[in-house]
Amino acid sequence: MSATEYEAVPAVDADAEAPHVGTVVMKFGGTSVGDPDKLRRVASRLVAAREEGHRVVGVLSAMGRTTDELLDLAHHVSPTPHPRELDMLVSVGERISCALAAMAIHDLGHEAISLTGSQAGIVTDTVHGKAKIVEVRARRIHEALDEGTIVLVAGFQGVSTAFEVTTLGRGGSDTTAVALAAALGADFCEIYTDVLGVYSADPRLVPDARRLTHVSFDEMLEMASSGAGVLATRSIEVARSHNVRLHVRSSFEEGDGTWIQEEDAVSPEKPVLEKALISGVVHQREETVYRVDGAKPAQLFGALAHASVNVDTIVQTNAEIVFSAPVEDKPDAARTLDDLGVSWSARDDLGKVSLVGAGMKSHPGVAAKTFATLEAAGIEAAIVSTSPIKIACHVPSADVDNAVKALHEAFELG
Ligand code: ASP
Ligand code: MG
């Protein structure tokens, strides 16, 4: 097995002699392609972009809950599905969407071709279920675009350097779209979804949450890795390293959504002083927190990385190491810790609430206000961790909703 550390997408594919001005990559999520009517609507949007003169690449997710259903199906047949076969199975969902959308586009009198990730030249490492893109060989896409054809690429998948079908992890269609936008030299990448954009908090929880017009790559990275579900974290990493501007917007309504781009580009008309102190409060209701005794950190985290466990917060005091990781990584983490023979325990009753804002860098007092707000709400944080633009508090899962509401109000984000 060969794992890669990061996604190495060439800034502009070597096949592309000249930059192709006017290429757009439009990604549609699962709810946007949820039924035949919605698929036809997506087809119309792609055709409209084509008729405006763009070279159009559509990246589609699987319809509705297809991926979940396929995963369920696999687990009904086998308790531990073979990773290669699981990828063969779940990669089908995106192919269905793309083939159907191509049919709908033909009916609108335009040329379209659907491609699997492999046909589209998305080459990955060999880690099934969590593969990383190592290269995009976009020749076939360029040829189709040159002929005026709308190209539909199945999201979330590629072909490994060992010629196997791989998938990129949940939400991976976002990564497909951004990697293609980078490789094709697209002006920007549009992410069509079922919300209007990125909000100052989850609007289902905080009714007066605001849609943000601009967010920096760094802020979005912190938000996504702290629980904002709107974009896959890895897609933002790729966007940041290749400077691909992202536009998250609704597939059901017109109008601008949220632009995600470099911080200096965020609001050129506004002086730095006006930069929002806090952009948003994000949360996740569950994150597993591990406590390990007597392990060497280098060995511990080396082994976890080898098992593709996505470690988040790390706190070390003397011989004790505390770290958190996504709930879905628990089987891999548990196996790794057992194999190391260290003594460990895990807590499943904590969630995480994070305040994110680029303005925090230069403003003291954010931590103080965070603690005061939580204390007034009777909420005790088990672990607190910070970055220059984030304060993250692990609190009991049962207190997560209240913590979000209290902090959103205290920092006047509504
Ligand atoms: N269909 C895949 C998933 O549900 C990939 C995606 O939609 O981005 O995770
Ligand atoms: Mg998604």
Describe this structure in words.
The chain has 414 residues and is an alpha/beta fold. It is 33% helix and 24% strand. The protein contains 13 helices and 20 strands. The strands form 4 sheets. An 8-stranded mixed sheet has the order 3-6-2-1-9-11-12-10, with helices on both faces. The protein has a 4-stranded mixed sheet with strand order 5-4-7-8. Helix 1 crosses helix 4 (92-107) and helix 12 crosses helix 13. It starts with 22 loop residues before the first strand and ends with a helix. The model is unreliable at 14-20 and 270-274 (pLDDT under 50). Magnesium ion is lined by residues 29, 171, 174. Magnesium ion binds next to loops.
Based on CA atoms alone, the radius of gyration comes out at 22 Å
Distance between the termini: 48 Å
Number of DSSP E strands: 20
Structural class: alpha/beta
The largest sheet, given as strand count, sense and whether it forms a barrel, is:
8 strands, mixed
Ligand identities: aspartic acid, magnesium ion
Global mean pLDDT = 92
Q: What helical percentage do the residues reach?
A: 25-40%
What overall form do the CA principal axes indicate? globular
Residues in β-strands, percent: 15-25%
The unreliable regions are: 14-20, 270-274
- Order of strands, main sheet, comes to 3-6-2-1-9-11-12-10
Please sum up the structure shown.
This protein has helices at residues 36-51, 66-77, 83-90, 92-107, 139-146, 172-184, 217-225, 233-241, 263-266, 297-306, 330-340, 366-376, 400-410, and strands at residues 23-28, 55-60, 112-115, 122-124, 133-136, 150-154, 157-160, 165-167, 188-193, 214-216, 245-250, 258-261, 280-284, 288-293, 314-317, 320-325, 343-347, 350-356, 383-387, 390-396. The chain is of the alpha/beta class. α12 packs across α13 (400-410).
